[in-house]
Amino acid sequence: MLIKVPKASDCHESDVTPESIYLSRRNVLSVAVTGLAVSGLPRWAAADDVARYADVEPGKAPVWFSEKLSSVKWGAVVVKDEAITPFKDATHYNNFYEFGTDKGDPAANAGTLKTEPWSVVVDGEVGKPGRYALEDFMKPYQLEERIYRLRCVEAWSMVIPWIGFPLSALLKEVEPTSKARFIRFETLQDPKSMPGQRSGFALIDWPYIEGLRLDEAMSPLAILAVGMYGRVLPNQNGAPLRLVVPWKYGFKSIKSIVRISLVGEQPKTTWQSIAADEYGFYANVNPTVDHPRWTQARERRLPSGLFKPNVRDTQLFNGYSEEVASLYTGLDLRKNY
Ligand SMILES: Nc1nc2c(c(=O)[nH]1)N[C@H]1C(S)=C(S)[C@@H](COP(=O)(O)O)O[C@H]1N2
Ligand SMILES: [Mo]
């Protein structure tokens, strides 16, 4: 990752505002009455309910998404006692190098990304390979809201309410063969719509590639996201389909996926290819294993002011140890960073 000195324009000078201010729900009353509230969010909402986040533009959603929105399991996983990052920050402070390397570039440039029609290829070591139109690809899945911390390797973090479905559900659909040991993801390559792929940002050998071990991919926390903040994913956040693995540094959560392959060998990932000594395949969030050029012990929780930074301790596995630590028993996390 490039070293970036934060600019004043990168973030707001405000302290974190309680989640309740950003979040208003149609069913708040019913939640209070039934006592299902978790940090102001219900675990389950009525079937016709839609989460409403204040100050969020609904965005132009495809029909399949709007249809699924009415049956989303709202607040299926939540973060307790931490505010949801304002939508404005989550959509204007991004890493998506296909659209430029400045934090504001994806918001400024990703409008050119054409997300409809979109197709996804599933191939490699699977019983049911195929090429699907996104609306067909999505048919089997029930959407859930998953409110997760996102910790970038650059030491900033957010809390984002994603809408997606477990990656394990996809794996069940496509039937990995006994030879499948890893899953590999590929982002769209389209220099016409992606200025970062034309500008000769020579470091990256496009397309962007990421991967997981198969057992990591099966973790109930790993999701494929199609929405956030109660709406369809904005282009700059990886529309129309992206990975979210909340216990790993953000670069593992690959955006705008066009190909998912089950493979026998560990895939060569984009950031590993750029600097293998700085960015590993595992990239598990770990406060005790520093990046060679900066500490990973702490993070800036956005929004964070330049003069009043909102800094907090980074947690092992980004606070998801209980769910994922067992995946790594016997693995030297210092060597396998
Ligand atoms: N294709 C692609 N996916 C990507 C990136 C990228 O540059 N290209 N950046 C990654 C990094 S470094 C981070 S921190 C997250 C940021 O996701 P967000 O902008 O939705 O917060 O996306 C990840 N996925
Ligand atoms: Mo990142």
UniProtKB/TrEMBL annotation:
Domain of life: Bacteria
Residues involved in Mo-molybdopterin binding: N94, Y97, E98, C152, T187, N237, R242, S253, I254, K255
Top enzyme class: oxidoreductase
Coiled coil: none
Required cofactor names: Mo-molybdopterin
Cofactor: how and how many bound: Binds 1 Mo-molybdopterin (Mo-MPT) cofactor per subunit.
Keyword Signal among record annotations: yes
UniProt domain Oxidoreductase molybdopterin-binding: residue ranges: 114-271
Presence of the UniProt keyword Kinase in the record: no
EC number from the UniProt entry: 1.8.5.-
GO-annotated molecular function: oxidoreductase activity
Record field: catalytic activity: L-methionyl-[protein] + a quinone + H2O = L-methionyl-(R)-S-oxide-[protein] + a quinol; L-methionyl-[protein] + a quinone + H2O = L-methionyl-(S)-S-oxide-[protein] + a quinol
Record's keyword terms, sorted: Metal-binding, Molybdenum, Oxidoreductase, Signal
SUPFAM superfamilies attached to this UniProt entry: Oxidoreductase molybdopterin-binding domain
Function in brief: Part of the MsrPQ system that repairs oxidized periplasmic proteins containing methionine sulfoxide residues (Met-O), using respiratory chain electrons. Thus protects these proteins from oxidative-stress damage caused by reactive species of oxygen and chlorine generated by the host defense mechanisms. MsrPQ is essential for the maintenance of envelope integrity under bleach stress, rescuing a wide series of structurally unrelated periplasmic proteins from methionine oxidation.
Record-stated family: Belongs to the MsrP family.
Subunit structure: Heterodimer of a catalytic subunit (MsrP) and a heme-binding subunit (MsrQ).
Protein name as it appears in the record: Protein-methionine-sulfoxide reductase catalytic subunit MsrP
Source organism (scientific name): Pseudomonas monachiensis
